[in-house]
Design brief:
The protein has 4 helices and 34 strands. The protein has 458 residues and is mainly beta. The protein is globular, with a radius of gyration of 24 Å.
Length: 458
């Protein structure tokens, strides 16, 4: 049963909200309800069919549905449209569903639950921008959860040719067997399809990505510029033996800022980056770099916290000057009790940062009990691995490696804050201007000094 049927439209019409005008002359926001408790809800021309206006709320009635598709729906910056679910609304399916969302702008999706969902949840295409997702629970799913991709959307130097201003907040994805959670990628840099600008992922939880057949990471965004990922947690990602390579929590190309996140028990890179500038629309200024700071990685297996790669020059040349190489900065992170996991069959040995290209700064990081399943080697570099040999433009200094937790002198594994006598306290030199406060609002610096490592955002 499809939601575009007469029953759903009649139900929407029966909702007792008058179309009165306010004192200012604007229509009073209305609440429109769709759904009769089951089936697939499909409104390809939602605004016209449901007579929705900016500021309205579209509510999905209680029930168990196989999916939702909405197209041609737009609010305004001052009055976005909200799409929300009743607390008893659930999406579940054993077969892929046509969950297409073309031309969505100034729309907020809130309070969705997808349980046992064997399909992509939302495929976003067309002229879509200023879209937010909040308070989602997606459990035991396959396919791409949020697929922001359109093969016809090719970057031409304008903002209109991009997907821009997307935000995910308090989204939990628990249990994934294939497919990325959030992605726009087709792994083709030079084609310049589905370029993304100003994405933010905050306060989200990603866990139990089993990936028994293929290594899909949680967040994979290519050609994405000014992505911010912060206040998120990632746990139990990847697998010990993969037929095609290890997994990632966050990966892609562009300029990412990843800070104040916690990573635990990964068979995966925490971040795997191909840093790249966009030489248009003001995205190529002096701050156009990848930044990885104030993150905590605990009990990870084998692979590094941060991997810096270099894009093929041929791909950049094919971009007609729009794309160029960018640098990485890896600062104020804590790596605690990593594992060498030599019996996994993969000879790779992970450290804090694995570097395969030039122009990387690695400063003020704290490493505690590295490779805890192997004897400590005082001659080994647990900070960086130069996987492609020496590189130009590297600054690797003032990082602290502690053999034991007691030697590090931190207070606890909730805050990771150094005690008064810790070797990690007030030891850093130099100032990084964009790290000015800790997550309690206190000034991070006392003069030129700062602590090593990260501070947990709790």
């Amino acid at each position: 049963m499809r939601g575009r049927g007469l029953g759903c439209i009649l139900l929407a019409a029966l909702v007792p909200f008058p179309l009165a005008s306010s004192a200012a002359g604007a229509a009073t926001p209305q609440r429109v309800t769709i759904g009769t408790g089951s089936g697939h809800l499909s409104y390809p021309d939602a605004q016209a069919t449901l007579k929705l206006r900016p500021g309205d709320t579209l509510c999905i009635a209680p029930g168990k549905y196989t999916g939702l598709a909405l197209g041609n729906l737009a609010g305004t910056a001052e009055a976005p449209i909200t799409v929300t679910c009743d607390p008893e609304t659930l999406f579940t399916t054993a077969t892929p569903q046509p969950n297409d969302f073309p031309h969505i702008a100034y729309v907020r999706f809130e309070g969705f639950r997808y349980i046992g969902y064997n399909s992509s949840c939302m495929r976003i295409t067309g002229n879509s921008h200023h879209v937010a997702f909040k308070d989602f629970v997606i459990k035991d799913a396959s396919g791409y959860c949020f697929h922001v991709y359109d093969p016809k959307k090719v970057f031409d130097g304008t903002r209109e040719s991009t997907f821009h201003d997307f935000k995910w907040e308090n989204v939990t994805i628990d249990g994934k067997v294939n497919g990325h959670a959030i992605t726009n990628t087709d792994y083709n840099i030079s084609a310049m399809r589905s370029v993304a600008l100003d994405f933010e992922i905050v306060g989200c939880t990603f866990r139990r990505f089993d990936n028994t057949k293929q290594a899909f990471g949680a967040i994979c965004l290519d050609k994405c510029f000014n992505l911010r990922v912060h206040g998120c947690s990632f746990s139990d990602m990847g697998m010990a033996r993969s037929p095609i390579g290890h997994n990632i929590c966050i990966g892609g190309s562009g300029t990412f800022t990843v800070y104040a996140n916690r990573f635990t028990r990964q068979w995966a890179n925490d971040v795997r980056m191909f840093p790249m500038k966009l030489n248009a629309l003001g995205y190529n200024g002096p701050d156009a770099a990848c930044r990885f700071y104030n993150n905590i990685s605990w009990e990870k297996r084998k692979y590094p916290m941060y991997e810096h790669n270099r894009l093929k020059q041929a791909d950049l040349d094919a971009s007609r000057g729009y794309f160029s190489h960018a640098a990485s900065e890896v600062c104020f992170n804590t790596l605690y009790r990593s594992r060498r996991a030599a019996d996994s069959g993969d000879p790779y040995v992970g450290v804090l940062a694995d570097i395969y290209g030039p122009d990387v700064i690695v400063k003020h990081n704290l490493i505690i009990e590295p490779e805890a399943d192997a004897p400590f080697d005082p001659k080994r570099d647990y900070v960086c691995h130069l996987g492609a040999g020496p590189q130009t433009g590297l600054v690797i200094e003032n990082n602290l490696v502690c053999r034991t937790w007691a030697e590090a002198g931190l207070g606890d594994t909730e805050t990771f804050t150094p005690t008064a006598t810790s070797r990690a306290r007030d030891a850093a030199t130099g100032r990084i201007p964009y790290i000015t406060q800790d997550h309690y609002g206190n000034n991070r610096y006392a003069g030129p000094a700062a602590d090593f490592g990260a501070v947990e955002s709790r």
